[in-house]
Amino acid sequence: MAGFTFWSRTNRYLAEALDPDGWGHTSRDSILRMIHPSMSHAVTAISAQGGVGDLKARVKSKNPKGPAMARLVERNGQIAFLSHDEVLYGRELDQIPTWCLLYKWDKGVISAELSLPIKMNGKFVDEWQERIPLALPDLGDPGADIALLDDPGDDSGPEVVVELLGS
């Protein structure tokens, strides 16, 4: 239950933090996603295992994913064509590259990265086009100490610096 709660709160935090900046959201196919205002990309949070944040180590999704996630992963980076979703989202929702905020909580330490998945082997996402490690502040016990902001615009949340390291 703690893992589900952390996943749910992470996606809720993304929604609360990004919505005021014009990001849209969808739970289509039971995948919670925040969609950039330009429709250039989307973000979802998933738990991971392995070397999260360490570009020299392998990383994969912690829990199995279904066919809807497999379709999104396989389509990342492909060109979108005119479709029914263009009326709602400006382009086919399944064609918007979906980045994953990967996180791992291990013995009180949280590691995270923003990664663009490109392949699933079996039911696990385990191949990535791009991985960007995130430097997180010490957040303590995520099950007890992380509170969602009442007002996402109050700037009292943690500041996370995202930098693209050399390939």
Structure summary:
It is built from three helices and eight strands.
Distance between the termini: 37 Å
Order of helices and strands: HEEEEHHEEEE
Major sheet: size, sense and barrel closure? 8 strands, mixed
Q: Count the domains.
A: 1
The helical percent reads 10-25%
Tell the overall outline.
globular
Radius of gyration: 16 Å
- The chain-level structural class is alpha+beta
Mean pLDDT over all positions: 80
Poorly predicted sequence stretches spanning 5 or more consecutive residues:
none
What is the oligomer described by this structure?
single chain
Beta strand count: 8
Strand content: 25-35%
Number of H- or I-type helical stretches? 3
Please explain how this structure is put together.
The protein has one domain (2-162). The protein is built from three helices and eight strands; from the N terminus they run αββββααββββ. It has helices spanning 2-18, 67-75, 86-89; strands at residues 24-26, 33-35, 42-50, 59-61, 98-106, 109-121, 124-135, 161-162.
